[in-house]
What we know:
14 helices
Amino acid sequence: MKFRIDTFTLLLLGAIVLASFLPVTGSAADALATTGTIAVALLFFFHGAALSRQQIIDGATHWRLHILITSLTFVFFPLAVLPVNALSGIAPDWMPKDLGLGFLYLGVLPSAVSSSIAYTAMARGNVPAAICSAAASNVFGMMLTPFLLLLLVSTSGTGEFAVLEALKDIILQLLLPFAVGHALRPWLGGFLGRNEKLMARYDQCVIWIIVYSAFSHSVVSGLWQNLPVQAIVLAIVLCFGLLALFMLIARLMVRKLGFSLEDEAAVVFCGSKKSLASGLPMANVLFSGHPGFGMIVLPIMCYNQIQVIVGAILAQRYRVKIEQASAAAHTTE
């Protein structure tokens, strides 16, 4: 099978290169963050307007799919990073103690919200189910992440998390725009249905903003400085391995349980992703004043960049498969 890098993937790679040499900082970073917030809210607004009431009900009540995604995020992923942390006692030059702690922290983080849903939408997957699962993951992740981290590493002094603030952000930025959009579906649904390509381009624009903003933040935070080269190399390799492992596990479990291809896309993207947007603020509380803070957050920064690039490529492939399956189904009717 010939491998071809499409234009959107090249644009994402360009965003990483641009962020590496010209990361957005200061007031420009604040403006980009505000733009991203508005763009994500509009993304949910449009998807709310585009989806029928029955599609939303089916997504919210798809409890078997939600249990699978939650298990991947908060059960299997934490267990998978335990052997990685054990390397700190075997090869401390390659896996310093703080880097091992960082992988444990990566394992207990909630799923990424905006990119998971944007990729599911790009893939023509089960968007309502992705919205429910990703939003719930972040709401409960505010409480589960510190608890699971304490369980894994027996740390103390975790501080307090602004759970209500996080819940408010999810409601205002994700659920409220979705609900308003759905309420306006009688007026907007037809237009959005006739302009699906325009919506797909908007999804891609939102993802590009997420990539550039997230990678800029990583670079400014010292991703490429003050860390042993071998530690960075090992972190990148392990992040690739973990992402590949959980995408494979997600696909195998979905197919074993008999879910549709649309459901598979939602599980793969929601169940394998980890949230940088939630991870860094929580890290500032959990590891406040820790001298190895840079190494602790390295895994989530690396994993985030890898997951957005791999996710973009995979979303395009899922889109082709789902569209082909849909066309074949219409042909046989």
